[in-house]
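input
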Amino acid sequence: MDLLALLISALKVFGFTFLVIMPLIAYSTYAERRVAAIMQDRVGPNRVGIPATLLGFRKDLSFFGLVQPLADGLKGLFKEDFTPAHVRKAFYWMAPAFTAVPAFITLCVIPFGSAVTLFGREIQMVIADIGVGPLFIFAVASLSVYGITLAGWASNSKYPFFGGVRSCAQMISYEISLGLSLIPVLLVFGKLNLSDIVTHQVTNGWILLPFWNEHGSIFHGQFWLNGGHWQLLLLLPMGISFFVFTTSIFAETNRMPFDLPECETELVGGYHTEYSSMKFALFFMGEYAAMIVGSALIVTVFLGGWSLGFGLDQLWLQTAEGGWKWYAGFVHMGAFLAKTIAFVIFFIWVRWTVPRFRYDQLMKLGWVVFFELALFNIFLAALIIATPHIGLLSTVLIGCPALIVLAALMYFITRSVEEKRKNKVT
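output
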């Protein structure tokens, strides 16, 4: 690798991390409080700005409270860094880093724009364009649970310990559903490279909006003659995958209504009860960074990633030879950020709308509902994909009855296990 390539990689790492993700994390906390205030008919943070009166002006400049995240950061830096005497100090200090770091590492495989050509050199708008993007994200993101579990254990206190144990059980419950829900999507794409997945959606429609392909939109006859009806039929398993995947992301990031590891009504503050100052801020950053990673992954897999969609990429941003115009990558970066921010707002909206689950409801939803639903959805998607190859008659006479039998078996087995569990409890 030449020196220029190393310099470009370093600029992508620095620019994406410190100029995009860090400000996005900071202003996600601001958005959280402002959106909550709007929903609860109150004001929210709107005062912190530039203290212009210190410079002789008659009034301060509030800027709608947009400097609030900077004030929060300064408060975390200058607040007393207190370490209780009873904690296991080495692990107590390590836990916040184990929580925050995996979220930042997973961002390196998410493509945030199409290739940009500068000074005759094509630059891919992804830090690490590897062929197993989703698997890398799952593998690294699952490490964050070690930080939470370690924080609960190292605090040497019962409430943080309960929060750490809950987080471990919750991760195991929803990690399975998370992986299974993505398999139908990967069956459609036939690949694991996230850049290729986005490029496929540019041409053939987003997974949740398959209303166009390379032959035109749903209003053109060629769309229906070249697989358009199969794209629309796949909306059913893809919609189920989206629902299970998104809900599991909420559970994986410990966001409401699945924030049982830090449930203040039962566990004071959960796993970070004994933490203060910047160590607590790292847990906070880790949660919001994981929320941004989850939003970015959902956008990339289900909503076209950086593409504008609806044929606008080809109409506005492609050259006559089929390549991208020099500024297309920057437009795509804006589209990717807009979609991600919209999904972050969705995360916030759900938090202040849906009440918290009980812990038994959380476990039941993961093991009894989502696991079986995601497993059934794999067979449903596989049957739809295989129909053009095995024929419609074989699908109706063999495939559909087999699918119904499978669903009935899963239902009765699950119901039997649940009844045995209830009998043991009573």
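quick obs: The CA atoms of residues 242 and 302 lie 7 Å apart.
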